[in-house]
Design goal:
Layout lengths: L4 E4 L2 E5 L2 H14 L10 H10 L2 E2 L2 E5 L4 E4 L2 E5 L3 E6 L9 E2 L2 H17 L4 E6 L10 E10 L4 H7 L2 H12 L2 E6 L4 H15 L6 H11 L3 E8 L2 E11 L2 E9 L8 H15 L4 E8 L3 H7 L4 E11 L13 H11 L3 H12 L5
Parallel strand pairs: 7-9, 14-15
Antiparallel strand pairs: 1-2, 2-4, 3-6, 4-5, 5-8, 6-7, 9-16, 10-15, 10-16, 11-12, 12-13, 13-14
Length: 354
């Protein structure tokens, strides 16, 4: 579908070029109320430049002037084949459109494109169930918290235990500072250490650098310190009226001081000051530790459905993160030297679309 194709009568689906994305995608994202951070045009360059994956961005139009978009990337994995993912490394993706017919046409177009490039699998993560047959996995949810105009009102809404943990962090001499790309070194050192503790390959530092280059002032780093020592950090991205926190981590050795509580509280305060209407905590597995952490702030959950379409007729894979093999690999990764995980991790992480 390198040129416009009529997937359905009166609906034209076409592959967007880099110029199309740069010139028109941003307007579509702004106009479509259900668009999410994953639909932002900046990811076209971020993921391509950081990891070399080929963008596969589709646009759709109907005779009534309604529009739809669907961002995706072709991730060619050695030995196991290619996957078309919407969107790799991000919490969500999938079609964003002004009608169900446009959304269906976009998904059909993506499947056709995936077959054309020889992909084994198509992945779509989005809040809505798609009309593609099969049952999506429903183990993940997205969690968001409404932000009032005045952070003092938010403070009063917090559970007493949450407020006490924030005060404990303050009494322990912790403080939070915000900045831009100049603080990525602090963030990455903590993030890489925490990913090793979790047994998971870490993203390349260049991935985050490309993100800050693309998003500019809408991206910021928050660092929580004890004295001059960074003990926790997060990245927040502004999207429409939402402040999104896709990545956050704190050093386990400082957990008793509650640095994560102060880190998130100060981020919420900043969001209120800057006029954001909600904080997006990102995805979690329902019932997990991170899920409970986010819920304690009063965050509300919304569904996040994972659709997997196997183009070779095989059954969808077992849910990621389960099974003895995963546990063995995770345990082995934790025992590797930190420097080695920082070197090897990005070489593996680039192919792990989740």
């Amino acid at each position: 579908m390198t040129t416009a194709t009529m997937i359905r009568p009166e609906i034209r689906v076409f592959r967007a070029t880099e110029g199309d994305v740069a010139s028109t995608w941003g307007r579509a994202v702004a106009d479509l109320g259900q668009s999410r951070l994953a639909h932002a045009p900046e990811w076209f360059a971020v993921i391509r430049n950081a990891y070399g994956h080929e963008p596969l961005y589709l646009s759709a139009e109907d005779g009534g002037g309604r529009r739809g978009i669907l961002p995706a990337f072709i991730v060619r994995r050695p030995m196991v084949g290619a996957v078309v993912s919407s969107m790799p490394f991000l919490d969500s993706g999938g079609p964003c459109s002004s009608s169900a017919a446009l959304a269906d046409a976009l998904v059909e177009g993506l499947i056709a494109e995936a077959r054309g490039v020889g992909a084994q699998t198509v992945e779509l993560r989005c809040p809505q169930k798609l009309g593609i047959g099969g049952e999506p996995m429903e183990h993940k949810v997205n969690l968001t918290l409404a932000l009032p105009a005045d952070a003092a009102h938010l403070w009063q809404q917090l559970d007493g235990r949450v407020r006490n943990q924030i005060r404990k962090a303050e009494r322990s001499g912790l403080s939070v500072e915000f900045g831009g790309a100049e603080r990525l070194g602090d963030f990455y050192a903590i993030f890489a250490a925490r990913m090793r503790e979790l047994g998971s390959p870490v993203h390349a530092q260049g991935f985050f650098g490309a993100m800050f280059q693309a998003f500019g002032s809408r991206a910021r780093v928050a660092v929580v310190r004890q004295g001059t020592t960074p003990v926790g950090s997060l990245i927040a991205l502004g999207f429409k009226d939402t402040l999104v926190v896709p990545w956050a981590s704190c050093l386990r050795s400082y957990a008793t001081l509650c640095p994560n509580m102060l880190l998130y509280w100060e981020t919420m305060r900043a969001g209120c000051r800057e006029g954001f209407r909600q904080l997006d905590f990102g995805r979690s597995t329902r019932g997990s530790g991170t899920y409970r952490f986010k819920r304690q702030w009063g965050a509300e959950e919304e569904p996040l459905l994972w659709h997997t379409i196997r183009l070779n007729g095989r059954r969808p894979p077992v849910r990621a993160g389960t099974g003895r093999g995963t546990a063995l690999l995770t345990g082995s990764w934790r025992r590797l030297p930190l420097a080695l995980t920082r070197s090897l991790g990005p070489r593996l992480r680039r192919y792990l679309t989740q």
